Amino acid sequence: MNDELLTADEVAARLRATPRFVRRLVSERRIEYVKVGRLVRFEVDALTAYIDRHRVAPLSRTEQVLSLRRGF
């Protein structure tokens, strides 16, 4: 386990997103965070888990055809 805690700005930089987006993730409780007094911090493992949960795997050719037929 990595004990490093990241700020919202550091998380935003790693996600190549805005700090506002990270604050929204926190307010919607879509990412795990740690409260240090009034401060919000993020474990590196929590950021990795968030990224893994939102990973989209590519479809095979057959899956592409089937999804087109279903109207997705």
From TrEMBL:
A Pfam cross-reference name: HTH_17
Domain Helix-turn-helix per the UniProt entry, residue ranges: 5-54
Protein's name according to its UniProt entry: Helix-turn-helix domain-containing protein
Species per Swiss-Prot/TrEMBL record: Actinoplanes campanulatus
